[in-house]
Amino acid sequence: MEFIDLKAQYRALQQDIDDRMRRVLEHGRFIMGPEVGELESALAQYTGAAHCITVASGTEALLIALMAAGIGPGDEVITTPFSFVATAEVIVLVGAKPIFVDIEPDTCNIAANLIEAKITPATRAIIPVSLYGQPADMDEINELAARYNLLVIEDAAQSFGATYRDKRSCNLSTVGCTSFFPSKPLGCYGDGGAIFTSDAALAQAMREIRTHGQEKRYYHTRVGVGGRMDTLQCAIVLAKLGRLDWEIERRLTLGDRYHAALASVDGLMPIAVRSDRTSVHGQFTVRAATGKRDVFLKRMSDAGIPYAIHYPTPIDHQPAYRAYASREGCPASLAAAGQVFSLPMSADLTEADQDKIIGVLKGS
């Protein structure tokens, strides 16, 4: 059994993927070829954002967004400690300070009601993470940001295709950033990512920054990075877009099946999904009761079922980031790190395999 079945996805899309890759090999424009613009137009239309800027990775997307906003030394950026390290990493890389706000225990997303207490005169932005594929409380976060004149950058690396109050993830705030890492709901076959915004000035800055700060060839108006997404990777994502709506429906269906079957398992609780949004289940994650996770993981291991832990150590407890930890800490994040684990999830997961996973977790 695969944790994420990319092989089955490729078999379903092989002809289109192969054809699109072959066209790139034939025209030879491997950097900023026509597929780049084609993908950006398609993704902007899909999300409803005015602009899409493809970049080399989801991490690069966040980094370029911060650079475009002019965030740097002396600034503070509020985010969650319960995420992949890239969320905080980019803040440190631009010279700013990450300020960690604890999570909601049931969704594991940043607790919007705790953010205001962390705002200071140095605060410049908030980066909520749409963890496990579900957006955070974006309306509350946007309203708070508007009152304090802060930028909101949605880290949507796990949630492309999810909705929040009838709007799509990546178009829920001034800036949205996503990842096309192969395991994501919409993935390429290497690294890739995209930034979304309807702010024309920010979009222009991001386009220049991703190409070494060039306004035009060999004319550098900004300090930038080599942050372009390869044409081949754009071609692969274009091939996958035609199947995306079906894949999201499958993820929603499989997520509902997991929720219904596991809700009654003693000592186990699926991560909650709020009624006003959807989760594309970038990971399908559950929480075990304190001290029970190893019991469930042994059952899965003995049955040959793969699993992962997203994430075993909060960022503020990582050696490189302990200096940014607050005195009071983030106890809900620390508790979740000792309880969560993720189950196999992809659009091509069969009901038979899912039923086997459920049966093993039930101990039957």
Structural notes for this entry:
With 364 residues, the protein is an alpha/beta fold. The chain folds into two domains: 6-102 and 109-238, Type I PLP-dependent aspartate aminotransferase-like (Major domain) (Aspartate Aminotransferase, domain 2), CATH 3.40.640; 243-362, Aspartate Aminotransferase, domain 1. It is 38% helix and 15% strand. The protein has ten helices and 14 strands. It has helices at 6-27, 34-47, 58-68, 86-93, 138-148, 200-210, 231-262, 293-302, 331-337, 351-362; strands spanning 51-55, 76-79, 97-100, 123-127, 151-155, 163-164, 167-168, 175-179, 193-197, 214-216, 219-220, 268-270, 284-288, 340-343. Strands 1-9-8-5-4-2-3 form a seven-stranded mixed beta sheet, sandwiched between helices. The chain has a three-stranded antiparallel beta sheet with strand order 12-13-14, with helices on one face. The longest helix has 32 residues, at 231-262. It is globular. It starts with 5 loop residues before the first helix and ends with a helix. The model has no long low-confidence stretch (mean pLDDT 98).
